[in-house]
UniProtKB/TrEMBL annotation, chains A, B, C, D, E, F, G:
Together with the chaperonin GroEL, plays an essential role in assisting protein folding. The GroEL-GroES system forms a nano-cage that allows encapsulation of the non-native substrate proteins and provides a physical environment optimized to promote and accelerate protein folding. GroES binds to the apical surface of the GroEL ring, thereby capping the opening of the GroEL channel. Heptamer of 7 subunits arranged in a ring. Interacts with the chaperonin GroEL. Keywords: Chaperone, Cytoplasm. Its main location: cytoplasm. HAMAP family: CH10 (MF_00580). CDD domains: cpn10. The gene is groES. Belongs to the GroES chaperonin family. This is Co-chaperonin GroES. Pfam families: Cpn10. It comes from the Bacteria. PANTHER family: 10 KDA HEAT SHOCK PROTEIN, CO-CHAPERONIN GROES. One of its GO terms (cellular component) is cytoplasm. It comes from Thermogemmatispora tikiterensis.
């Protein structure tokens, strides 16, 4: 499979099909004005660049099961699988 | 129950049903242009990242009874319960 | 009475009924495009967080009689009394 | 007379009636898209708060005769006199 | 003549009547979407305030012949002469 | 061939014809609201200038195969070939 | 000829007539939503002022052949020749 390395403070996520009740019991209510989505982290970037030149490592890790805000991401397909490139700031929480 | 860890300066809150007169006597006037809500803090993130790379711990704690601005949050359900992921800056005050 | 602790650079104010001529003689002209209001400070937050992580104490104190810009606040009722949560930057001046 | 202490980088000004030709000869042309106004500084705040926590004293003083951009101010009456609360950045120049 | 001292990073300019072909040969094409103007610097402020509290002196001097973007300025008349208060950042270039 | 050196935090990319299934298997779904594109890095600028005056080298290199957000770029032709000048922040990921 | 010294992080450019195929082979496709232009650098300002008060010299030099985004510039004529005052950030690349 082609390898993908996100740049800077970006994260690649494999989104779960929407509204599937997952083992963690997450169901996204239709009423929610801005439906968050669930997915698995595939790859993380080098981290956010601060004003002083330091890089801050990304808080989530490969394999983490995450809840994220859908509107910020960019979709693409790799070997016929759908992925999303998100900013770290689009990720709301880690579920375990 | 699935565990949820908010990322960065985010907070997960269990909102109280709206307009319930709570033991703290909080009633949200309908007239208020931007109805704040009440709820209990379920989990807090690692804190806000400053320009110099330091993390500032979140000012509210798990179990705190808080007043927050509704518009900023993202709703989701976990084990059939409704939760909100908010930014720390959406939380207005702690009630005790 | 329930206690209320504003978060960060917020302030809780007990607004005076509008247009009452107060002992300080403040009358808010209707013509003013953005009618400021008067009120008394009930509680102040921990202060504004600076980029370097320091907290700057709030400039006004509990009991101060203040003039503030109405548009920024969030209204709520506590034990049937009306209060406003404001940002420190919404407070224009202290009257004495 | 009630005392008024502006907060932070604010200034209280006693505006001169518009278009009066003042001793300094200032006449505000109607054509000017954004008519500046003239007035006298009544009180100045503690100054602008910098990122490093220092306060920078306000550049104008009580009694200064100033030219200011009207759009930013908030009007109010004190003992039947009209005043304006402005940000320091609304003040364009000092006239002498 | 009344003296005028601009505040902070502001500059007072005596604008040249528009489209006059000046000794420097500057003609402002009508086609230009944002017609710059020419004028002479009358007075400069104390300079721009940086985050660290330092003041940076204004780059142009009294008497400089300058090209500036008109949209940012505020017009006023002093002793029947028309002047403009500009921000330093509205000044494009010095002509000599 | 004319040489091109991007300025600051810019990158010149030779875009791949859209929707070509590439050896890396990237296919950009039409449904994606903001179709990312693929291309090869031709030249990189001196890097992003930080507040403290340091330059941070660009994270991608000449020859890298990248996924980027199309909307930010500026198209131009050089010796009849089409190129794009992008900001480093428009580049989402490196594919290998 | 009148001398022109751009202020701060500005650059004066002599634009090439549009769509001329230049020796460097640059042709600007009509399709490009934001047609970049070519031109020669005539003069550069003192450079960009950083938060710490340092000036960063402009990256391009007098005589450089540059590609720039047209929308940001301000047109003017000097001795019947057309020039543009641009911000350094409007310059995309140097061609040689």
């Amino acid at each position: 499979m082609a390898k993908i390395r996100p740049v800077g403070d970006r994260v690649v996520v494999k989104p779960l099909p929407k509204e599937e009740v997952t083992k963690s019991g997450i169901v996204i209510p239709d009423t929610a004005k801005e439906k968050p989505q669930e997915g698995t982290v595939i790859a993380v970037g080098s981290g956010r660049l601060l004003d002083n030149g330091d890089r801050v490592p990304i808080e989530v890790r490969e394999g983490d099961h995450v809840l994220f805000a859908k509107y910020g991401g960019t979709e693409f397909k790799l070997d016929n699988e759908e992925y999303l490139v998100l900013k770290e700031s689009d990720i709301l929480a880690v579920l375990s």
